[in-house]
Structure formats: C-alpha cells, structure tokens
C-alpha cells in the first residue's frame, strides 16, 4: 500500500497530500521499530538485552548513543570488540594475572591530543582498539607474547598510546613510526608506519633490523608482521584463543605448531612447534634465528614393559638453497629422558640459518628399560622454519627494490643488527644478542 500511495503522488497533488502524510508518519514509526534497531545494535556494537535494560533506553536511542561516540569506527568496532572479548575470556581462564594489566579505553579527546602531539594521524583501526583498551600497563608478562631460552627472555608489552607517543620516531631511517610493543629485557619493539616513507608501506607493522654494513647508519631492514593494525592484532588474538600458542607458566609463548607436524612410532608420539626470533636475527648478513619446542609423549595405554630411555638424536637439515647437513649426538639438550606410559617430555632448542627458510627432520634412538639390547628409532616429523617477509630500506634498495621472502638471494653484504640509536624504545639489544647464540640442532 505504501508503494501504491507513493506512485499516485505525481498524478493528483490534492489527493496525494494526505497519502504522503500517512506515508511519512508510517515511515517515522518504522524508523524507530525496536526489533530493527536491536538487530543493528547487536551487529555493530555487540550489545545484548542485558546492556539495553541497564541503559534504560530503547534500542533506537541506544544505537544513536553509540553512533555519536563511535560512529567513525563502525566498520572496525565489532571485529575489534569481539577480538578483545575473546582474548579477555581466554586470559581469565588461562592467564588471569594479565587481565589486571589491561588499561581502560582512551577517550576521543585523548587520542586527538596524541595526534596533535606527534603531528601525525593515527589509523582508525588503531584508534578504535585503543578506545576499547588503552594497551597494557608496563608489567611482565607482556600481552603480546613471550619467548624464553636458557640465556634469553622476551616478553612484549602492548604499549598504551601515551607511552607509544613518547617513543614516536622522527629520526632518519625510522621517520613517522609509532611503537606498538616493547620488551624490557631485549629492548625489542614492533612499530607501525604512520606514513609511507623510507621503504615502508602505510600502516604496516614491523620489527626494525638495522643494517650496519651500509655506510648510512640509518639504513633499517624490516621484518614485516602485518599490513595494518586490524590484521596484526586480530591474527594474534586468533592464534592465542585457538590454542595455536601454548600457555607456559601463565604466559603466552609464541611458538607456532603445524597440526600436520606430528609423527607416531609405536606408543610414542613426537610433535614440534617453532618460533622465529627477530631480535637475534639479521637480514644483513643473512642470520636467521629460530627456536623449536619438541613434545615427546608415550601413550597412556602403552604396556609398562614398553618403558624406554632416549639415547641419541639424529637430524637432517635442508636449507632453501638446497644444502643438506646431518647432525647426530647423545641425548637432547644434555638430557636422556625416560618414557613410561602417559609420560610427556618437552624441551626447547634453537638453531640459526643463513637462508630465510629451511626444514629439519630426523629420529631419536631409544632402548627398552627391561631389555637394553632392544634398540629402536622414533621418527621426528619434518618441520619448517620460515622467517617473516622482510624488506630493505629504500636507500639501499633504490636501484633494484625487491620485497623478499623464501626465494631470497644471499649474495649481498650483510650485518648483525644493533639498536643502540633507537632512543628509549630500542629495536635490537646487542647485549642480549651476544649471549644468546646457542649450540645448533640439540
């Protein structure tokens, strides 16, 4: 009937006036239809009936209230709000002490003041996330993940916007870069490029890696970690809440486990997860540092007579340029674990390569406790170690600029990273790096 009334309007103006009045009144009623606005409130602001009742207003008024405050973020808010809620729910169950380290959201005025302070626009997805939670207090463990070896520890804090603004970079080589994270122990930070300068793309996140072979000390290589804040943050949260990253001693450890990287031999299952350490790596020279965590488990249904002890290990290592190396030796990291039904043994080791991707595979040799003459091998599944995409600074790459990954050419001149000129928030800490070289393939 509304369509018919509207179609009659041009035909007879005197007749159409009351009809148009009726249509206008009806559209006004429909525009405040509560079920419609409930759907929109749920879709864009993730609001529930409980929150609507607590507000004491209609769904229509509630939508307007949120839109006035957060309307500029409407395309980002539901994604980021859901990610934050999932992360907090997970932390409450697995890492409860981290919940207390989260800061309340920043106000629109505070974010505007930060933009004025740094004379640069913050991306809307970043602003939206910081309206929900203004990062984390400067405490350990860091929300953005940890990594621990025998002589090296990293834990990255998600910086609040005020602290991040204090570390905003204006110097050559890092111009217009805002720190996202910071580690007290290594000085490592991830940065976000607020402008497309010096070989960086606008809003991408990265770990800086200074190139000391360049005559210009401001030449900074980059390990890329995300194309924008939204991708960077939601990918990390997904890995946390889906169990991709293990929780060890109430901390999130950024080991990645390929679900196909599992091998079972008889009653024993071996699985492997890996992690790339940018703070101990460099593009120039090609020095890529990885750590891997191995889990050895004997089935709980195994016979007690199946109990055994690990004697030795064998590795076959293949790099992306085709080189193959074989390594064997006694035990694992100096240990000779005994496996009994239901027993789990985990250990972490590390290795370095001169190519950005490689894989390892091998086997352990065991003997039965009941009969030392009975010796057998347990397969270690093939696992790949691949560093993040990396890029040269624009100064060095101006003649032949390339974005680099697995097929990286290793013939150039390279150097170890040194972040001593990074100001208060450093890129790489050489003191930590010098003591972190570990025996290979143990």
TrEMBL record:
A single cellular component GO annotation: cytoplasm
Residues covered by the ApaG domain: 262-392
Cross-referenced PROSITE patterns: APAG (PS51087)
Keyword Transferase: no
Source organism superkingdom: Eukaryota
InterPro entries from the UniProt entry: ApaG_domain, ApaG_sf, F-box-like_dom_sf, F-box_SCF_Substrate_Recog, Knr4/Smi1-like_dom, Knr4/Smi1-like_sf
Cited Pfam families: DUF525, SMI1_KNR4
Involved pathway(s): Protein modification; protein ubiquitination
Residues of the signal peptide: 1-18
Protein name, entry field: ApaG domain-containing protein
